[in-house]
Structure formats: C-alpha cells, structure tokens
Write a structure and sequence with these properties.
heterodimer, A: 2 domains, 15 helices, B: Rossmann fold, 5-stranded mixed beta sheet, 12 helices, globular
C-alpha cells in the first residue's frame, strides 16, 4: 500500500456497498419509507403533498416510464437502437421533473433521460432518434422547450443558466430545469453552472440524480463530500437532498424549487438519491463492478412498488386500475415496436444540409463526391470500391 | 445610418463602434465576458457599452470561460444574439468544449431548428510584449471544427464591417482580433461595409508571387511587398479576412496569375492553417505553380516571452527569404 492510496476500498463495491453509503447516514427528505408507509416529519412542514388523484396520475406516469424504458431496452437487444442508457429505478425523478415543468419551461436532459422526453409528450420515435443512430436529435427543441439530450457531461449546465438568464432578462417567468448525474458533479461545467446561476440569480433548478455510479465508478470514488447537496453551500445556493425513489417527496421538493425560481428567488440544487438498476448501457457489464446483493437491496426500494403500496393502502389503487394501466402500457409498447420495426430512409445528403445556414462551396463539393460514390452499380461508385477516397476538401 | 466623414480611428475603436451600433439597432444583441463592464475590457473594446446600454445589455461575468460560452449558447437558444469576450487567446481554452461540442454543432444536431447566432471575440497573437499565455494564435483549433465561421480583420474598416457581419450571421462566428493591430489607425467613415464573411481581399496587386496572409501578418506582408518593390519584385498580397468559409476562388485566381505562393501566418506552422492553404493551392493550382508553395509561420515552439518573441514572429525579412526561395525555383 502506498502512502497515497487512491483505491480507498480495494475490495471494491462489496467493501463499501452503495447499499450502506455514508451518504445515507443523514436521511434525505422523504414522504414514504421503502415500504410505502408515510414517514412522520420526513418533509419540511410547508411541503405540498399531492392529492391522491394526482398521485395516481403520477403512478400511471411511473408505470408508463418503466414500460417505455423496458421497451427501449428490448429494442436495443433487437438491434433497433444503437445504444440505450436505461433509467430503470430512476423513474420517479423523471416523472417528478416533468410534472414540475410548466409548458413554457425549458428542460435540459442528459442521455439517461429519454423517459423524461416521452413524458413531456415527444413521440418515442422522435425522442430516440439519436440513440437509433442518426445525426440529429429528432425533435424541434423550441417546440418542446426541450434541448437535445446532452452527451458531454455537465455541459448542459451553462446552457440552462443561459436559458434562465435570457428568460429573466426578457421578463418571462420561464424556469430551466437541468438534469445532471452524480458523475457530472465532478466536472468543471457543473461548478461553473452552479456558480454563474447563483451570481445571476437565474431561474434554474439543477436536479442531480445520484444513481450511485458513473458507468463503473461508485460515488465514494467520485467525491469526498458527505452528500452532493452540500456542494450548494459554496455557491450560496439552497441545497436539498431528497429520496429519489419517493415520488411524493420529489414532487414537493421540485414544486418548491420551481416556485422559488419563478418568483425571482434564484436557483436551487437538488440531489435525488436513487439507483441505476441496469448497467450504464447495453454495452456495459455491471457484474464487473457491483454485487447483485446491492442491486437486490435497491430493488426493495423500487419507486413504483413503493408508491403502489401507499396508494393501495389509502384506497386509491386496486387491481382493476392496475389492469387498466397494464393494458395502456402494453398498447403503447406495441405501437412503439411497430414504429421501430421499419428503418427510416437514410441519405448522405442530410449530413451536409445543416452544418451552416448556407452550405459552403467546399461542402457542396464533398456532397457531390459522396453522391457520385452512391451512383455506381458496385455500391459506392468508386473505381476502387475502398470507400472514402476522393478529392474532397473543406 | 449615414456614414460620418472619414476620421482617424483605431481598430479597437472600430470594433467598439460596431458593437455599439449593433446594440442600438437590435436589442437582442448582448455583450458579456470578464471585465467588459465598468472597465470596458482589458483592451477597452467594450468601453462605454454598459454606460450606454445598461447592465442588462453589457455585463461582467464570473471568471469562467466555459460558463460564459455555455451561457451564450443558452441565451442564443432563447433568441438573444450574444457577443462574448474571451479575454485573451489562451484563456479561451476552457471554453473549447462548449465551442467545439455545442456551439459548432447545435444547428446541425437540431436540423436547423436551433441556430447559434453567437459571436466569440478572441484577442489573439503576439508582438505586444505579453507574458506567457497572452500571445497565442489559436485559429487553427477553431477552423478545424465544422459549423463555425472563423474571421479575422487586418484593417480598421474590416474590423467594423466584419463585426457587424458576424453579429448578423446566422452561424456562430469566432472573431479573432489581432492584438498588435488594436491601436493601428486609419481614416474610415463609420458605419462601413467592406465585404461579406467568406470573401478575401487583394490588399496589393502584383504579378511575381502571391503572399497569402491574414490578421497580424497582413501589414507584415504589405511591408515585405514594399521592400520587394525596391528590389524590382512585384508581390500580390491577399488578405483572407475569413478562414472559414475560405475564399478559395480568390486564392486560386491570384496564384494562377502569379504562379508562386507564400503562405504567411503567425501561429505554429506544424498542422497549422497554412498547411491547409498550401494543400489547397497544391490541389487546385498545381499546373500553374512555378515553385513549391512556401510557408512562413511561427516556430513550432510554445509562444516565447517578451524578450524572445522578436525571434519568433514572422517579419518582412523572413517573408522575403521565402519569396526568394519561391522565385529562385522553377
């Protein structure tokens, strides 16, 4: 062992399982415990709790999000999607976030927030365009007030600040909701976004879904902070830590943050403690870095089961409603499968069309070259057939 | 706006006037960056804008270039037209990811739905006695990235005109401001429009060889051409003005006429923009060339400190040595 031992837990996740992280030493805000029973004093006294009928709609949305996520995971296995980062286990964060948004508010999702896109109303076939392997985001971000899913970590943070600041300057009560993961909190752009949002008092809500892993790296190797919400204090922001598998608590916390932002109170940093039930993507092997016992621990804290137990206990949910939801989800997935059964037409011309407002002569020449390559009977039209050679230049 | 009578104006003042005129005409134009407010920028290019337009139109930001750039992107999504200042060339590097991954690609990845009407101002280049990290020429990093326009003025009139064109451009423009020319003066009537982005300008007509240059090397090449004239040589000086889009036709026309080309820039030569120019000239003018394309560039070393930079910077003598080689060949 060296003096400076960076691998503080050489036994890996088993030695320091996320099932008992120090982060759980101080309880996050919650309304329901893992068994779906209300927790006395788990939320701030002024927290607004949704009425049972609204919670039932939230439950439907959770079930829908999981059905969508499951179907997308199936589609990637069938080769219909190039890759899919699953949000299984994190559906409460997705549902609560979208629920908090007014129509004019902006949403800045990451690659793991596909469910939030469809919850906002974007058709699945558009929302999954990038993950299907195309070059564009598939939907009009201005129409849906939803930015393209961001792949470079935390870089959407400053965009949220810009959108919030723009709304503030325009005297428009819009709020920008920015998703982050726990890994993103180590990035410089996370820090710069939090700091700038606070300085500008921009109407932004930062929602960190702490799902315990950045691909394979567990939270304790990501940060030495006791909890991610503590980072807020350095920026002069309110930092709130909430149980990310408790839809009731998430709704309450997000509603307060949105009210504050909308009324000129500035940004809030929310850490939602949750768990990524699946591997990072289909290309990842989670067995290499975490124990099945840990996954099992979190399975017992499932956001959907938890709310189902509560709603059943208060008489708002029964077998007939469940059957109805099952049917709706099955119909949605069937439609989704049908939409993805056929590959859209891909044409190389598309790649050149939107690089600039007006295509440069250099790009016109390259487009002509690629077109000519397509023209030949042998496939790429080249005399050599090796693919990309040609007198192209920018 | 009718132009005022021509008066002696510096390049810094011309850019300042372009910003002020654009802000007067369009309230979506906002200026922000480090020290651009009360101070008016470390080079005074934003002098008086906060006083004239208020803190909502020209404001100081936290010292965070990625955030400045990302905030501009968010504001552009909303419909503002931000003009941001990166205080010095090498201090723009923290913003590179925002520029390369988002600013340059947003139009494309949204199929044109979200254009980025953003201008990134970068004071660049050496020759002002700057200590380390204050004299880089970083244009190649940006010119290499599809989706950006990259321009740099060499004259006072172009500084005004290109800035107005950049602010009006539907594409993001990286606007390189040659620091050494900030205090160069010319009699210019503002407002003025010189030429569109994507067009080069022949600064001196000649027949024996073409000097292809931009920004700070334009006056260097003009001085070299004057010296060459005394030696009986007639050099053409082509100021690119715009690296992306590149006015290839102007280059081809000039080199086809002279048969010889010397490419001159201040940034590091290896993998630099001059390599692209030399390749383009070789591809398109090979049979008109009387000699290999010569390059005069900065040395392949980190930009040297004030006591050393005169050895680094391409000057008229170094340009003329390259001209000698080009004229000796063939």
């Amino acid at each position: 062992m060296t003096l400076l031992d960076l691998s503080a837990h050489p036994e890996g996740a088993a030695h320091h399982p996320a099932s008992e992280p120090s982060a759980w030493d101080s309880q996050p805000l919650r309304y329901l415990d893992e068994h779906g029973a209300p927790v006395e004093g788990g939320l701030r006294p002024d927290a607004r709790i949704l009425a049972p009928d609204a919670l039932l709609r939230g439950y439907r949305a959770l079930r829908f999000a999981r059905a969508f996520d499951t179907e997308a995971t199936n589609l990637v296995m069938q080769g219909r999607l190039a890759v899919y980062p699953s949000c299984r286990g994190q559906e409460a964060c997705e549902v609560a976030a979208v629920h908090a948004l007014a129509e004019q508010d902006w949403m800045l999702p990451t690659y793991r927030d596909s469910a939030a896109l469809v919850l906002r109303g974007i058709p699945a076939v558009e929302a999954l365009t990038l993950l299907r392997g195309s070059w564009h985001c598939g939907y009009d971000p201005k129409q849906w007030r939803t930015m393209p899913q961001c792949t470079p970590l935390a870089t959407q943070g400053p965009h949220a600040v810009g959108l919030g600041l723009a709304a503030k300057l325009a005297g428009d009560p819009s709020v920008a909701l920015c998703f982050f993961g726990d890994g993103a909190t180590s990035e410089g752009d996370f820090h710069e976004a939090c700091n700038s949002a606070a300085v500008y008092q921009a109407p932004v809500v930062f929602l960190v879904q702490n799902n315990q892993y950045a691909i394979s790296v567990p939270l304790h190797k990501q940060t030495h902070a006791t909890q991610l919400s503590d980072k807020a204090i350095g920026y002069g922001l309110p930092g709130v830590r909430v149980d990310g598998n408790d839809l009731v608590a998430l709704n309450a916390v997000l509603a307060q943050a949105f009210d504050k932002a909308r009324n000129g109170g500035g940004p809030t940093l929310i850490e939602a403690v949750t768990y990524r039930m699946q591997a990072h993507t289909n290309a990842d092997d989670a067995a290499r870095y975490r124990q099945s016992s840990e996954v099992e621990y979190w399975k017992q804290r499932d956001p959907i089961d938890r709310l189902a137990k509560y709603l059943t206990a208060i008489g708002a949910l029964d077998a007939s409603i469940e059957a109805e939801i099952d049917e709706e989800c099955a119909a949605y997935c069937e439609q989704m499968r049908a939409q993805f059964a056929e590959e859209p037409e891909y044409h190389p011309d598309e790649m050149f069309e939107h690089v600039y407002a007006q295509m440069t002569p250099q790009l016109e020449r390259q487009r002509a070259m690629v077109r000519a390559e397509q023209g030949g009977a042998g496939g790429n039209g080249s005399a050599h057939g090796t693919g990309n050679e040609g007198e192209a230049g920018r | 706006m009718s132009p005022a009578p021509a008066t002696s104006t510096t390049m810094a003042k011309a850019i300042n006037s372009a910003l002020a005129d654009a802000m007067s005409e369009d309230d979506k134009v906002v200026v922000f960056g480090e020290d651009v407010g009360a101070l008016g920028g470390v080079f005074r290019v934003t002098d008086g804008l906060t006083q004239k337009f208020g803190e909502e139109r020209c404001f100081d930001t936290p010292l965070a270039e990625a955030s400045i750039m990302g905030t501009a992107i968010g504001m552009a999504v909303y419909g503002f037209k931000p003009v941001v200042e990166m205080q010095f060339d090498a201090f723009a590097y923290p913003a590179l990811e925002q520029v390369l991954s988002h600013l340059a690609k947003m139009r494309n990845r949204t199929r044109g739905a979200v254009p980025m009407q953003v201008v990134v101002r970068i004071p660049y280049g050496g020759g002002i006695g700057g200590v380390e990290h204050h004299s880089d020429s970083s244009e190649s990093y940006f010119a290499h990235t599809p989706g950006l326009h990259v321009v740099t003025p060499a004259t006072v009139g172009d500084a005004y005109s290109l800035m107005r064109e950049a602010i009006e451009s539907p594409d993001p423009v990286v606007f390189f401001e040659p620091k050494r020319l900030y205090w160069s003066k010319a009699d210019v009537a503002l407002p003025t429009r010189t030429g569109a982005i994507g067009t080069a300008a022949v600064r001196r007509e000649g027949t024996d060889a073409t000097l292809v240059c931009y920004g700070q090397t334009v006056p260097v090449c003009l001085a070299a051409a004057e010296q060459a004239k005394r030696e009986g040589r007639d050099l053409e000086v082509l100021d690119l003005r715009s690296l992306v889009p590149l006015d290839e036709e102007a280059i081809v026309a000039s080199v086809a006429k002279t048969g010889r080309a010397v490419v001159v820039h201040e940034s590091v030569g290896f993998g630099g923009f001059g390599a692209e120019l030399a390749a383009k000239i070789a591809e398109r003018c090979f049979y008109q060339l009387e000699a290999p394309v010569a390059r005069v560039a900065g040395l392949d070393i980190p930009f040297p400190p004030p006591k050393y930079e005169h050895w680094y910077l391409p000057d008229a003598d170094r340009v003329l040595d390259a001209v000698d080689r080009a004229l000796a060949a063939g």
